[in-house]
Amino acid sequence: MAPREKTKGEVSDLKAKLAAVIKTGTLPQPKDGKGGSSGKGSASATPKDTQTIKRGLFKSILHYMTINVDMSGLFTQMIIASTPTNDIVLKKMLYLYICTYAQQKPDLTLLAVNTLTKDCGDSDPTVRGLALRSLCSLRVPNLIEYLLQPLKTGLSDRDAYVRRTAVLGVLKVFRLDPNIVEELELELKLKEMFANDQDSQVVANSLSVLQQIVRSPQDLITKPVVYSLLNRLKEFSEWSQCAVLEFVSNYRPEDGDETFDIMNVLEDRLQHSNSALVLATIKVFLHLTIAIPDIHQQVLERIRGPLFTMMHNKGPEISYTVASHLRLLVERAPMLFSQDYKQFYCRYNDSIHVKKVKLKMLTSVADESNAYDIVNEICEYATDPNETISRESIKAVGTIAMNLGQTADGLVERLLSFLDMNMDHVTAETYIVMADMVRCLPDQVEKCVDALALLKSVEVVSPEAREAIVWILGAYGDRLQEAPYILETMVLGFDEEHARTQLALLTAAAKLFFKRPPECHRLLIDVLEKGSESANQDVHDRALFYFRLLKRDIQAASQVLGSAPPTTATFGEQLGSDLKDALFKEFNSLSPLYGEPASNFVAGDEEIEYEIDLYENAGGENGAQDGEDANGGAAYADTNLLDLSDDLASLAAPVADPQAQASAAQPPPQQAAPPAPQDPMALLDMLDVQKPAVPVAPVAPAVRLSPSPSMDAGKFQQLWGSLANQDSFVVSSPQVRARVPELANSMKAIGVITMASGGQEPVYKFYQYAQQEGANSVYLVELIANTQGGALSVTCKSDSAALIKPFASFYQQSLTSYVT
After folding, report:
1. What is the DSSP letter of 318?
2. How far is CA 257 from CA 289, 292, 328, in A?
3. Cα–Cα distance measured from residue 516 to residue 328, given in angstroms and rounded to the nearest whole number
4. Rounded to an integer, what distance in angstroms lies between the CA atom of residue 815 and that of residue 35?
């Protein structure tokens, strides 16, 4: 039997059982296969009271609800079966059922309102509280008038549990209709309870609700209110204490004496076993003394002990949270923590995330007095079994060396010694750090270049490391005799290199050409030729740009490409002072963990939800302004970024030798540049920009796509819903994440235009179209890229039954060639 029919059968069975219990108080008697009585006796043979039977049925219904079976059809039977009853367990299950399906059955919910309203006046405070909570949780605007009176009564209830529930109910009403809260003066009532209620949890709930409903929460922070909360602090639960301390952290004392009084009251909270409470107390201390530098420094010294204790003695999650907050303080005042650097040494049982944060703190506290001790410890981590920690330790050594500057000779030698370890990831990360180091420490260039002198061939696999080696060879190849020949071996495998390495090869060859023209002329010709044949749009465009620049003005090219690399003191990855201040204001939150302000990852009320069906909105009123051209494709889809058509006639001139051109004193305008050692005309055929980009894969014989198809968004949507000829397939590759950004441009090269695209990590969608050359047949494509799973799910449609299979095969071949 199909699952859907089985589900219907279970719902019908439960409905029949509820009806029997309502009518007779017992379950219906089972029957044998012939339709008669089973002979095993009636229900009285196994006596059960009605309440027990109802409990069993209600539990079965809630069980089906948890597995996403729709039980809303039993709404009426549930209400009738549960009234009247004094069974608190039945009431809890009924309230859960009503709150779950109230919005789906607003008309029938009115039947339950009478039951809930009646229970709000029950003699049992637990029932009153549960009924009021359920009544406020219905989220049906039409029924809001029924809960106002029970809510007002609950705010004045003699039992604290009911008052706590009523206070939170005010916030739920505010979400439904803010005007009602103002009309009934519920805000004034909450302020009165906040100031005078004897129950600490009622006060805590009132504080939480008031901060969300008042127009200016800052007006609540007054001296009497703060003092009242601090005097009752120990009466609150730990969770409520954290909320109170968060509230107090926004208070600004009138003078230093008041600051000390508040800190003396909270001193014992620093020794609490709850880490959240300790961090909340530390935030109060830091914010109260931010305007008093001397006292602020003493506070930092006072809180070091509790933070170190929590970082070392708690679980991995709490240790990481505390370490992230401690890192923020260390980067604000590294001198205060420089003597405690051993506290940041990694322990064998630290998690990977904690070790990474500790390494960052070690780089911050390192100075001339402790740098060599710290580096000696970090060097031990380079052989860590975890590759991430090994790489981070090498990066930390380089960062410390760059921070120390002129006194870092010994540290640079320690870094270069990693090249002798013969571990792939260690060698790769060392080269990456070397590239950064020569930009910050020009005095250490000779040592880094000498380390490359023994490099006969680049054997590292990491694209980042190969890019770093190529960059060093291009920038400082005039100091290394073997530089052009190392680059030549890499250019031989240009097509197998990663795109970032290909870009680096183009730049390095152009730079080295101006420093060593005779040796690098052939190298430059080869790399430009291979680069312009690349399917990657960035590599293709850069090769054309360099060629155009070299042909137009060799002196300008020398200034652009042959200039010395600038020296830098900092990198963009480092936290700026403004960001540090923003994170400090949001201390004891997720911001220090993420390393960015809450506004970057907390959605606002005005956030626009992502539309799943992108093509449905592709032809809206703002379609043209949002990046679509008149044909419905992406605005950039038909844009030639390097329009060289006006220069084709001048491309026949060979690349000039910069030294020969510089030595000629004011040559006549008609004088031709010195001829290149070899004829570059073979390069010119490849640089014809009028031709379409090199296709990702050869075109199937039966499929010939038009280079400029035409279709608007409205027609796309209409055809997508009507075409019946379709084919689907999935392409898997670990390179999907890296290939998605350039997918639209690469598919355009084979005649498939992207109509609309979008999404967010890890799922992206592309809607594309193409047209058969010389015919009216069209092809539509929906491509869903899952970067996490490394899969591309494709659905192709066409108005031609004969061409759908060849097109799908052609598209699959092209896509596979691109992502693998």
Report:
1. H
2. 12, 12, 28
3. 48
4. 63
d(CA 279, CA 57): 47
Decide if 132 contacts 95 (C-beta within 8 A): no
Cα–Cα distances in angstroms (integers) from residue 285 to residues 252, 269, 302, 328, in the given order? 11, 11, 10, 15
CA dist., res. 767 & res. 309, Å (int): 55
DSSP string, 394-408: HHHHHHHHHHHGGG-
Strand partners, 728: 795
- Residues with Cβ within 8 Å of residue 232, at least 6 apart in sequence: 200, 203
Does residue 367 sit in helix, strand or coil?
Answer: coil
The token pair that represents 1 in the structure block: 């039997």
Distance separating alpha carbons of residues 417 and 732, to the nearest angstrom: 40
Omega before 597 cis (within 30°)? Answer: no
- Tell me the sheet residues that pair with 754: 768
CA contacts within 13 A on the Cβ side of 86: 4
Written as six digits, the tokens of 358 are 């500790």
What is the distance between the alpha carbons of residues 587 and 286, in angstroms, rounded to a whole number? 9
Residues 624, 630 contacting (CB under 8 angstroms): yes
Closest CA to 742 of 541, 574, 471: 541
What's this model's pTM, rounded to 2 decimal places?
Answer: 0.67
Question: What are 225-237's pLDDT values in tens digits?
Answer: 999 999 999 999 9
497, 460 Cβ separation under 8 angstroms: no
| H-type alpha helices, 102-199 | 106-119, 125-136, 144-155, 160-176, 178-183, 186-196
CA distances for 471 relative to 169, 476, 500, 510, angstroms: 63, 8, 11, 11
d(CA 677, CA 515): 17
Q: What is the pLDDT of residues 147-167, one digit of tens each?
A: 899 999 999 999 999 999 999
Which token pair is 783?
Answer: 């491509």
